[in-house]
Amino acid sequence: MVKISSRIIFEIMGRPPEHISEALNTLVVKLGSEKGVEVINKKYHDVKKVEDADNLFHTFAEVEADFSDLNSFFGIIFNYMPANIEIFNPDKLKINNDELNQLSNFILTKLHQYDSIAKKLMGEREIMINQIRALKGEIPIVKAPIGKKETKKKKAKSSSKKAKRKVNK
C-alpha cells in the first residue's frame, strides 16, 4: 500500500482557554505517537472567545500527516474525529480485496461499538426517565432486587440449616 499524505483540522471548544490549548496540543502529540502515523507539520491557531456564549472558547490546529495505509488513516478518522481531513497524495488509490476486506471489517467493528454504546445510553435514559416519573408520582415505584435471586435449592438448603440449628439448641 502506498503512503497517504493528508491535511487534518482538529477543533476544540471549552473553558478555560489554557485548558483547551493544552488539550489540543496533547491530542496532536498523541496523534504523532500512533502506529502508522507520522506528523509532518502542525500549526496551532490562537484561542478565541466564542461569540454569543458565556465564557466559552475555541481553537484549532492544522496538521499535515502521512499514514502508512488505509487502516491507520481510517483509524484516526474514527478515533480522533477531526473536523476536516483532506488527502493530497496520492491522487488515486488502488486497493486489493484483502485490504478492502480489512478496512470494511474495521469500519463495521467501529459501527457496532458505537451502536452498542448508543443502545446502552438509550436504555439508561429510559430507566432514568421512569425513575424521575416514579419520584414525581406519575407511575408506581418498582424496586429492583438487590443481588442475585435465590434459587429453590438455595432456599431449601437455607431452610434445612435453620431447622438443624433449632434442633441442636
Helix-strand pattern, N to C? EHEEEHEHH
| Name of the CATH class of the largest domain | Alpha Beta
- Counted beta strands: 5
Helix content: 40-55%
What global shape is seen?
Answer: flat
> What multimeric state do the chains show?
single chain
Number of helices: 4
Head-to-tail CA distance between termini: 81 Å
Q: List unreliable stretches of 5+ residues.
A: none
CATH fold type of the largest domain = Alpha-Beta Plaits
Describe the protein in words.
The protein is α+β, with helices and mostly antiparallel strands and 169 residues long. The mean pLDDT is 87. It starts with a strand and ends with a helix. It folds into two domains: 4-94, Alpha-Beta Plaits; 95-144. The chain has helices at 17-33, 70-80, 97-135, 152-168, and strands at 4-14, 37-44, 48-49, 57-67, 84-89. The longest helix has 39 residues, at 97-135.
Features:
169 residues; alpha+beta; Alpha-Beta Plaits; 50% helix
